[in-house]
Structures are given as C-alpha cells and as structure tokens.
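The following record pairs a protein chain with its ligand, C2E.
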Amino acid sequence: LRLHFQPRYRISDGEMVGAEALVRWQHPERGLIPPDTFIPIAEESGLILSLSDWVIDTACRCAARWPEHLFVSVNLSPSEFKRGNLVERVQKALHHSGIAPARVELEITENVMLEDAPGALELMRTLKRLGVRIAMDDFGTGYSSLSYLRSFPFDGLKIDRSFLNNLVGSDDESIIQAIVGLGRALSLTVTAEGIETAEHLTLLKAVSCDEGQGFFLSRPLDTDAFNLLVKARKNIDIKSRV
Ligand code: C2E
Ligand code: MG
Ligand code: MG
C-alpha cells in the first residue's frame, strides 16, 4: 500500500492548509491501483480494519513531520464505524505519531449515519473528545440531510466534485453558493472538491468558499513529491490563475 497526499488550499489567499491522505495499492503486475477498486473488496472481506489502521497510522506519522500549520485528513469507511474500537485505533495512531490531535481530520460520509444515527452520534462525540476534527465527505451525493449537518458534531463539509464537474449553468452555481452559505450558517469549514479549471476557482472565490482541492491546484502526490512541495512553501497564486 502507498499513501498519496492531495494538498488542500485556502481559497482566499492560496495558502496550503493541509492534505488528504489517499491510499493506493502498488500491484506487482497491474501497477498503481486506485482505492475505488479495492476498498469495496476490503470492506466486504473485513480487511478494511487492518488496511485502515495502516492508513491512519502512516498518515499521522507522515503529517507529524510536516510544518505545524498543516493538517492531515483521513477517509474512514462506514463499515469501520460499526466496529467497536475505532476510538482506540485513532487514539493509538495519535499516540504513536505524537501529532497534535487538532491537526487530524477524519472524513466520513452520510452512510455512517443512515444505519444507526444515535450510535454514530455517540461515537463522533467520543472522537471529538480526542481533539480531532470531523468532516462530512462527498456532500451532495446522498441524502444531504440538513438535520445530520445540524445535529452531528461536524467541523467541515466537503462538496462532492460532481457539482463542479457537471457545472453547466447558473443553477449549479446557485446550488454551490447555497451549500457554501449553509456551511457558513452552521459554522462549518466548506471545502470544494474537484477544482479542475480556472473557472471553477473563480466561481468558488466569488461565493467565498473556504478551501479547495483539485487537479487544477495539485494532483495527489507521493510522499517525496509532497514533501518537496511543502519545503518550497509555494502558495497557489490564486490571482494569476483566475
Ligand atoms: P474522496 O475522499 O472523495 O477523495 C477525493 C478523490 O477525488 C480522490 O480519488 C482524488 O484523487 C480525486 N480528485 C481530486 N481532485 C480531483 C479533480 O480535480 N478531478 C477529479 N476528477 N478527481 C479529483 P481517489 O484517490 O481515487 O480516491 C477515491 C475515493 O476512495 C476517495 O474519495 C475515498 O472515498 C476513497 N479512499 C481513498 N483513500 C481511502 C482510505 O485510505 N480509506 C478509505 N476508507 N477510503 C479511501
Ligand atoms: Mg475524502
Ligand atoms: Mg470526497
């Protein structure tokens, strides 16, 4: 397994604020296999727990060596939420790496809440007590329930990349603006995913979206490339790109 890191930038000034850890499988014959191919199989077979342990541990250990202003964001599977020891697993990774918990964000999807909302709420509250942040990933693809956003202890909201990718008219822009407004009203940090063009960035700037990720800003990078980028401390020049 390999971890790649995709930088997340603050849209107002182009400063990198953190990065999302994205797992890949380096297969001896088939090359680098994307997570969409093997995560579902890992979930079905139960291997997801040991895979995810490795991801959380490696992400925290890498990020502990980054400058302190950068956070790391890790994806969790809904199936992990049902297992009893998620809190202990996260706690262990924090402890082993020595990273400040506030620099770690866990990304979960709505599916986590669908099956057992009270159980998920309890678990999220316990995770929050460890000091980590929690973001809702892929917002807009499922039920996009307002009540989940309101009543669960989320710190951030990630707008699914399908919104930017399928941008055709002013309706879509209004929807993005509405989601950003919703996030603001609920005091959530709103991140747009899938920024692929200067037009996307212009739009997000115009609606004051907080943070963004996407191929136009940076692709997911292997550890060496990511470390080089961090060392260079080069901000994305939002003005010249827009
Ligand atoms: P995600 O959490 O929504 O991650 C963002 C995905 O969008 C990543 O795909 C990233 O490479 C891709 N992406 C980023 N910018 C752009 C862009 O501008 N355009 C387009 N078209 N795509 C962009 P990736 O790495 O293939 O990951 C896919 C999904 O696999 C992730 O979606 C996440 O749900 C899951 N995943 C990745 N790593 C892990 C992991 O360690 N654990 C678990 N449970 N799931 C993971
Ligand atoms: Mg994610
Ligand atoms: Mg996403």
